[in-house]
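Lab notebook, bench 4. Still working through the backlog of constructs that have no structural model yet. Next entry is a single chain of 289 residues. Request: give me the structure tokens for it.
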Amino acid sequence: MELVWLEDFNVLAQSGNFSRAAELRHVTQPAFSRRIRALETWVGVDLFERTTQGATLTDAGRHMLDNAQEMTRRLYQMRQEAREVAGKQARTLHFAATHSLSFTFFPGWVRAAERSGPLEAIRLLSDNMSVCEHMLLGGEVQFLLCHQHPDVPPRFAADQFQSKVVGSDLLVPLRARDSEPAAPGIAPPHLAYTAESGLGRIIAARLRKEDRPPTLNTVFSSHLAAVLLSMAQEGKGFAWLPRTLSEAEVVNGKLVRALDEHWDIPVEIRLFRPNTALSDFAEDFWAKL
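Model written out:
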């Protein structure tokens, strides 16, 4: 049995799609499918039900998932700690953070955290929410920094992780000041987040709660809030943008409201970590937050 098989299993269980999982694992789909089949052969049972819509876990696969995720995290943590004990790696804190928070919130937040004691080294990996969740699940990072909403839990087992609120944000529907507002009865052009985006999940959940959600004419989509910000500034449509990212453009008048305050979405900024023990300096950092 190979560790990469367990990593493949975890990613496919999360994504539910062979093509997407292969992309996340940076291999071709045929090679990825062969590795999943090799794992199933080693276990002796089918772990996924394959359909035209994707892949879903069998009962055996669901039973195996928590242990597979925990085992993968522990193996990477063991390697990391062995390197630190041998002096071959600096005492580094490993973070995954979604793109918008990496550019706006993270630098100032880390500077504030250092007031309680200097941090020797930091490694930040920035990507969309789906990839960040995968990095935390796989043990590649100790911490995940992301936007969070009570109605949209992360895609990992809640009982295996804990979190702290470290900030707040607000998603505001914004458009360019010079763009024409939509005429009555006409759906305004909407700049949307893709399914890999955590912000997209939050907005979709908010709209599902509305008895009369706005009619949206989606003309463009991206998992990057910064790209949607740029498109909105160019007058291509409106987007729900984090205040931490768009505040300067609102203050200078380049962006204005596309919808009234009823459609604002308050969100938390949370830091997640596994329940299993981290290295001493990572635990010390967590305790001081």
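Notes after review: DSSP finds eleven helices and eleven strands in the chain. Residues 75-167+269-288 form a domain with the D-Maltodextrin-Binding Protein; domain 2 fold (CATH 3.40.190.10). Flag for follow-up if needed.
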